[in-house]
Design goal:
Blueprint lengths: L6 E6 L3 E6 L2 E6 L2 H13 L7 E5 L2 E5 L4 E2 L11 H15 L11 H17 L5 H11 L9 E3 L8 E4 L2 E5 L6 E3 L1 H9 L6 H8 L6 H21 L10 H7 L2
Antiparallel strand pairs: 1-2, 2-3, 3-5, 4-5, 6-8, 7-10, 8-9
Helix pairs in contact: 2-6, 3-4, 3-7, 4-7, 5-7, 7-8
Length: 249
């Protein structure tokens, strides 16, 4: 049909799907609670987010944000050190914002889920037991009491857009909640340790615990691996979750 933009499947799995039509992203999600969180969180945060164009459950239409993603897991980032520092500064603004009214997962819930994922990885021969066990030990440092902040909850680098040295938008807020600040910083730098210093410079070294960030690298990689495998992604791709676990050894 003339005048109709090509439809691009950005991501699609059993939980949800995101399509791009021109400059509009259509998020299809049968779990309306996730969409509720996304819309409410974007309205609350003090950093750039996509404009909500319309919402007709189960579809949420969002305007594309300008710029390009900070990078991709498993690939070198072409963004400047200043752009990474700007991302760190944006995360600090988020963490300094008033808390959202809904809580996140407790330490006990995270630990129980982590232990279940470790058992699955070993029982199914996905990773060597010593690799899983060592990373579980490292992850323990993240499982401590924290002062909750407004967290994005899934702040991977593909969710942060920059134009030059400026952050132009942060997308995908379905996991936003009260949570641990170091989790967001770990998500942002997962697989890109070479830019950790840049992010810390923008965020403020006074509020950063590098050991806990590294613990979250192990924790996030262990917790995510089964989900990635079951949804058609490969955590063993060079530079991705399995490599992060190996690098922690």
């Amino acid at each position: 049909m003339a005048g109709v933009d090509e439809v691009e499947v950005v991501v699609a799995h059993r939980d949800c799907a995101t399509l791009r039509v021109g400059d509009v992203f259509l998020k299809v999600d049968g779990d309306q609670a996730r969409s509720d969180v996304e819309v409410e969180a974007m309205a609350m945060v003090p950093i750039p987010t996509p404009e909500v164009l319309w919402r007709k459950p189960p579809v949420l239409a969002l305007a594309a944000v300008p710029g390009t993603a900070l990078g991709r897991l498993g690939e070198p980032s072409t963004a400047s050190a200043a752009a990474w520092a700007a991302a760190g500064a944006a995360v600090r603004m988020l963490h300094d914002a008033p808390l959202p009214p809904w809580p996140g997962r407790s330490v006990d819930e995270i630990a129980a889920h982590l232990d279940g994922e470790c058992e699955w990885l070993i029982a199914n021969g996905v990773l060597p037991a010593d690799l899983v066990t060592r990373n579980r030990e490292i992850a323990e440092a993240a499982l401590r009491p924290w002062t909750p902040v407004f967290t994005h909850g899934d702040l991977q680098i593909t969710h942060v857009f920059v134009d030059g040295d400026k952050v132009t938008g942060v997308i995908d807020w379905t996991e936003a909640s009260q949570g641990d600040a170091m989790n967001d910083l770990a998500s942002l730098t997962l697989g890109h340790e070479e830019h950790l210093a840049d992010v810390v410079a923008g965020y403020g070294a006074d509020a950063v615990d590098l050991d806990v960030i590294r613990a979250w690298w192990s924790l996030r990689s262990l917790r995510a691996s089964r989900w990635l495998i079951e949804h058609g992604f490969d955590p063993n791709t060079p530079g991705c979750e399995f490599d992060v676990l190996r690098s922690q050894m």
